[in-house]
Amino acid sequence: MRLYSIFVYLFLYIPIGVIAIFSFNAGRHASQFQGFSTQWYGKALNNPFVMDALQTSLTVAFFSALFASLFGTMAAVALQGIKGPVRTVFDGLIYIAVMIPGIVIGIATLIGLVTLFDLVNPAIAAVWPAGAAAPKLSMGMGSLIAAHTMFTMALVVIIVRARLAGMDRSLTEASSDLYATPMGTFRQVTLPMILPGILAGFLLSFTFSFDDFIIAFFVAGSETTLPIYVFSSIRRGVTPEINAIGTMVLAASLIMLVTAQILLRRGEKRKS
Amino acid sequence: MTQRTRNLLLLAPAGTWFLVMLIVPLTVVLVFSFGERGASGGYVPAFTFEQYANLPARWAAFKNTLTLAPIGTFAALVIAYPLAYYLAVKASPKWKTMLLVLVIVPFWTSILIRSYAWIFLLGGRGIPALLELIGIEGVRLINTPFAVLVGIIYGYLPLMVFPIFVSLDRLDKRLLEASSDLGATRFRTFWQVTLPLSLPGIATGSLLVFILLMGEYLIPALLGGGKVFFVGNALVDLFLQSRNWAFGSAVAATLVIIMLVSVTIYMRLISKLGAQREDVSLM
After folding, report:
1. Chain A contacts of B22, Cβ < 8 Å?
2. B34-78 pLDDT tens trace
3. What angle separates helix B93-104 from helix A2-22, to the nearest 10 degrees?
4. A234-260 as b/e: b if 16+ CB within 10 A
5. Whole-model pTM?
6. pLDDT per residue over A114-164, tens digit each?
7. Which of A17, A155, A258, B162 sits a CA distance of 20 to 30 A from B174?
8. A71: distance to nearest CA of chain B, Å?
9. Is the reported ipTM for this assembly greater than 0.90?
10. B133 touches chain A (CB under 8 A)
């Protein structure tokens, strides 16, 4: 059984390891290792298309994680004190957001927003002063951020709610017994306790957005995110440059994940 | 400001976001699925069931998804279970958390890069080249259903291991001792005690993997080479290449309906099984 487990770990890590090793391959060919070199990293980092895509991905990931953790936390806190139909509806929304396949979310966002823009754009043009070119809404950075925020917000609500549920109620009661205002209680008691959860939610949202391919594929418009760039290069053929990009992407997600884990653990300890 | 108003204000941004970015778009898909295709693609308002009547045109995609998703789920379960069992029951407590984290970490890294790794391994210069060295020639792995299955198992194994681990970890180990003290063989202990008690974990893991597989696009696109076609691939084709929004919406709506129906049936079955076990244990 132990042997079997070792085997499964090898299955999980050999493919990743092979990519990482071959990203340092001096040769062009994927099959033989022809000596150590970091040239493919240099190539990748000097490729303007890669850097553009990276910048788009980082911007989208940052803003969607920011909005998701802000609005998600607000919702999670509010849901603590709400019962009845509002709560049922909200639970339903989160369930739908998590259950519906990413590809359907991507499609729905694409045709939903395009339809909306088709309605709104003539209206803007009509009220815009003559002479100046009216702004035109279209798919791109904004729709990417909006779509990623929608999905990751559901994640943040789930994570922060779990933390709130694990919180000792008597602490907030004690605080209000001692005449703290609701806002004071929130800032001095609740927030410090759920902060690790919020930060972990931010990092997980960031990772999700940064790695997402399928939603972005539909809603990116003329923008290219890093996963979209990698996907289209894979389609053109396997190159060592993709290995280098892949290794960097994996390393970045690993760092994010470890940080999120540590934050959640630390919160856990403080709680007990 | 009353507490209720404050709570509602706090909910407002998230609620609006879900409304505009989730509910409205999903409604648009539903409405479009009853519409007609425009002359140059896109959508023309109408009320017709034509798109749904046309579904058999994409029958192959549905057939592939509905065979490979359950097979993939089952294969992941069979491979994940012994590992989850080892981690929960046999592994030393000192290493347990560390080993579990090592299983889960890959799931949170890019599925695109992880599937790409298998193009690299299964492609002509990877494993087939190694097999040629030992005299086995002409093996084709990439762009086959087998490659898609490997990609599926590789991608979703962590998601299966975790819930099973949780249910086995919670299991009271004294039950296993009691069973063997009463003369049960190890197999019988497993079959009658361990397996039934880990059923919730199996159910959760299978459900998660199945849901994700139903909407899969990347793995068949990268490892199936256009020959193993999922509904996801049909959707990309319909929306991004042929721009047939009305028919694409009908396909998407059908996919979601199939998913909801199979998940509901599955949950019913599981809770029934659970209920039966309850009766047995009462006796």
Report:
1. 93, 96-97, 100, 105, 108, 150
2. 998 887 777 888 888 989 999 999 999 999 999 999 999 999 999
3. 40
4. beeebbbbbbbbbbbbbebbbebbeeb
5. 0.89
6. 999 989 988 888 888 877 777 888 899 999 999 999 999 999 999 899 888
7. B162
8. 5
9. no
10. no
